[in-house]
Design brief:
The structure holds two protein chains of two kinds. By secondary structure, chain A is mainly beta. Chain A contains no helices and eleven strands. The radius of gyration of chain A is 13 Å and the shape is globular. The radius of gyration of chain B is 13 Å and the shape is globular. The chains are: A mainly beta, B mainly beta. The interface between A and B is medium-sized, with 19 and 22 residues.
């Protein structure tokens, strides 16, 4: 059973701070990793994805992947109140699989 | 370019009634998916279609059927609705031929079964 674990939160950070969201996964063969943002009552929206060990930056967002330790993280720099949402981590398994396994999400609250 | 669209947005059914949720994508993606999202349970895959003409069960397929009508459209049918099927249903699509497999979601259908 593939599992993706996230701290449910809520994670509260002050405006302008760095928010750090973490995700661990059980399937060592996992190949691709995705972060989605979901506002209350809305659908998940892709923020970014990462395949290789290390960091990937896109604007204020940085995804970090460590396959040996089986974790992936998302850093949000200069957090804004508009970043307040639930962040979902998703993992794609082995090469022939199309399915993503989603974590239950971490609720982030950015306090003005 | 509308992305992924779903109809209806809201629906209330009585136990035992049937309905079909419609999904369409205009991104020329090969694969399409149906998820349900319940509080505390996260997103769970109901069925998926890797390509036109194929469908496969996901994690929670019981009580549902699907049809991949063509490359653009993927419908989800509840033959005899039960209160346990009260949920938010999301359709998603992705490119899986040489792509990066990221999925794009529709706006969702909020279904209540009384």
């Amino acid at each position: 059973q593939k599992e993706v674990e996230q701290n449910s939160g809520p994670l509260s950070v002050p405006e302008g701070a760095i928010a750090s969201l973490n995700c661990t996964y059980s399937d060592r063969g996992s190949q691709s990793f995705f972060w989605y943002r979901q506002y209350s009552g809305k659908s998940p929206e892709l923020i970014m994805f990462i395949y290789s060990n290390g960091d990937k930056e896109d604007g204020r967002f940085t995804a970090q992947l460590n396959k040996a330790s089986q974790y992936v993280s998302l850093l949000i720099r200069d957090s804004q109140p508009s970043d307040s949402a639930t962040y979902l981590c998703a993992v794609k398994g082995w090469a022939g699989s199309y399915q993503l396994t989603f974590g239950k999400g971490t609720k982030l609250s950015v306090i003005p | 370019n509308a992305g992924v669209t779903q109809t209806p947005k809201f629906q209330v059914l009585k136990t035992g009634q049937s309905m079909t949720l419609q999904c369409a994508q205009d991104m020329n993606h090969n694969s399409m998916y149906w998820y349900r999202q319940d509080p505390g349970m996260g997103l769970r895959l109901i069925y998926y279609s890797a390509s036109e003409g194929t469908t496969d069960k996901g994690e929670v397929p019981n009580g549902y059927n699907v049809s991949r009508l063509n490359k653009r459209e993927f419908s989800l049918r509840l033959e005899s609705a039960a209160p346990s099927q009260t949920s938010v249903y999301f359709c998603a699509s992705s490119e899986t031929t040489g792509g990066s497999y990221e999925q794009y979601f529709g706006p969702g259908t909020r279904l209540t079964v009384t």
